[in-house]
Specification:
The protein has helices at about 5-20, 30-40, 85-100; strands at about 45-55, 60-70, 75-80, 105-110, 115-120. It is of the alpha+beta class. The protein has a single domain, classed as Lambda Exonuclease, Chain A. The protein has a five-stranded mixed beta sheet with strand order 1-2-3-4-5, with helices on both faces. Helix 1 crosses helix 2 (about 30-40). The longest helix has 17 residues, at about 5-20. The mean pLDDT is about 90.
């Protein structure tokens, strides 16, 4: 198992608290609001529904909203699905490349147990 850094550890802890309190079955926006409440209790800086520029080969091609940007270095993508599938993981990885971030967390509140995946930008040109 990969060692997690303190940042991802704190975020996953917040997500677990939300999932343990609410369980599954709510819309994604409900989990997003609850996660924001839990993140406020930490000392992490974050923003919700952040408009992010999308890049293609260095050119800005549009924007998309990230569910959360934490400490200006990690993207959180939330889902409320029965089960995460490979397409959701690919989507999260693509967002990292498009947003030019090093890493992100894909968190699914819709399953019986909280599901999360730490994803990394494989493009070497991300901002540091």
């Amino acid at each position: 198992m990969m060692e997690r850094d303190e940042l991802t550890y704190k975020i996953i802890g917040c997500a677990m608290k939300v999932h343990n309190t609410l369980g599954n079955g709510f819309q994604e926006v409900i989990y997003q609001r609850c996660l924001a409440i839990e993140l406020l209790k930490t000392e992490l800086s974050f923003a919700r529904e952040v408009e992010q520029k999308v890049y293609y080969e260095g050119a800005e091609v549009g924007t998309r909203r990230a569910d959360f940007i934490v400490e200006n270095c990690l993207v959180i993508e939330l889902k409320a699905l029965i089960n995460l599938e490979d397409v959701h993981l690919a989507q999260a990885k693509n967002y990292l490349t498009a947003y030019n971030f090093e890493k992100g967390l894909l968190i699914n509140f819709g399953a019986t147990s909280l599901q999360y995946k730490l994803v990394f930008n494989t493009n070497k040109n991300y901002k540091k």
